[in-house]
Amino acid sequence: LQILVIGHTDREEVDGILWDPMPGGSGLLDRICERFEEVVDVAREIVGECPSACESSCIDCMQTFRNAFYHKHLDRHLALERLDSWGRRLAQGHDIPSKQPAQEPDTETQPVNEAERRLRHLLLAAGFGEGIRGEQLRLDQAIGTTTPDVIYRADYHEDDEGVCIYLDGLSKHIHGNRETEHKDREIRSWLRNNGYDVIEIAVSDLHDEDAMVRNFRRLAGYLREDAIRRELRSGAEWFRASQDEAGGREESRLRLVVPSEESRFKTCVPLYSLKAAAGAFGEEQMVEPQGWVEPEVRRKLGTGMFVAQVVGKSMEPRIPDGSYCLFRSPVEGTRQSKIVLVQLRNSVDPESGERFTVKRYFSKKIETEEGWRHVRIELRPQNPDYDVIELSAEQSEQLQVVAELLEVL
């Protein structure tokens, strides 16, 4: 298989394309897709537990003859972070277009994160309609292209005109440096000078009624929607309606059911509190679940899976406070870098004061005559405002890894 990496002119992300050079295909890509979770698990074990315990990379983990040119750039710790961030599942984005260079813009593109979904609910509740998402606008040759979060075109707009809405503040890495801010200003200035109106909405404004009234009144003015413009100021029903709709969407991912014996762990899983789960799976006690739920997930359910609510801010933004999550017990494969539910026997989580916690697991091990032995275990929060829980080799026996996080619901 071959790898091709392609960058973009309007954003910092790159696309890594894995392709099969054999005429008609060798079938390897299909096998990778079918067994992708296994591929990721093995990859994580290779980079997370290098037999040589190298600093960045070596022939025992990432270095091969074919990637010799890139050896100085390889970092197994960074690779582990990326694998952990990307997850173990594949999702189809689109079919490969039959002709290049470009396919027609997809006006049915859906929001991909919580801020975009929140903006969509607000726009619909205020009466603006769906708008156009995912359309790439070609600017001049020096600037390149841009893809606004939403575009609106009224009857009087031509194809190269309209109102562009940008959500600002989605990523500190993208929006928090001077070079990108300068690029953003350049793009939006070009749009304003070439037939477009531009509205910039800060993510923090999405929960501020007064700010959204101002933003949407500007939008209504640009679209000559005088009735909407008046109604936006007359009351906050549309703002509350958007919150209700967003809440309904989240609740629909978890449905309480009364299961038959045949449906258990096939279409539904038990709902536990974290404390009960830590006891039930950690100490093999008989603990009755709070109920059974049908989570809306694409993965196949199985024995050992359960749902529990994670309360606290130490794992934000990966796990928002109060999120219901799907777990699996026992942990399969290596624990390194996985987010796990842990039971602490002689200490407590400083955030909650409880003997169970959900954190990312890291361990340092050495090889002895008796085999591999822990030197140090770290339970790391995602939120930098919280401290790492560190356990020495002597304390490692005081810890029981109960389950691994599969998905935030």
Could you please describe the fold and organization of this structure?
This protein is an alpha+beta fold. Helix content is about 25%, strand content about 25%. The chain is built from 10 helices and 17 strands. The strands form 4 sheets. Strands 8-10-9-11-12-17-13-14-15-16 form a 10-stranded mixed β-sheet, with helices on one face. Strands 5-6-7 form a 3-stranded mixed β-sheet. A two-stranded antiparallel sheet has the order 1-2. Helix 2 (about 35-50) packs antiparallel against helix 3, helix 4 crosses helix 9 and helix 7 packs antiparallel against helix 8. The longest helix has 15 residues, at about 180-190. It is globular, with a radius of gyration of 25 Å. The relative contact order is 0.08. Residues about 100-110, about 170-175 and about 245-250 have low confidence and may be disordered.
Task: Give the tags.
17 strands, 25% strand, alpha+beta, 409 residues
Brief summary:
It is built from ten helices and 17 strands.
Q: For the largest sheet, list the strands in their spatial order.
A: 8-10-9-11-12-17-13-14-15-16
Radius of gyration: 25 Å
Overall geometric form? globular
User: Helical content, roughly?
Assistant: 25-40%
Number of helices: 10
Spell out the blueprint of helices and strands.
Layout: E1 2-7, E2 14-19, H1 28-34, H2 36-48, H3 76-86, H4 114-126, E3 137-138, E4 145-146, E5 150-152, E6 162-168, H5 172-175, H6 178-192, E7 196-202, H7 209-222, H8 226-234, H9 237-251, E8 254-257, E9 269-272, H10 274-282, E10 291-295, E11 305-310, E12 323-328, E13 339-344, E14 356-368, E15 371-380, E16 389-392, E17 399-408
Parallel strand pairs: 6-7, 9-11
Antiparallel strand pairs: 1-2, 3-4, 5-6, 8-10, 9-10, 11-12, 12-17, 13-14, 13-17, 14-15, 15-16
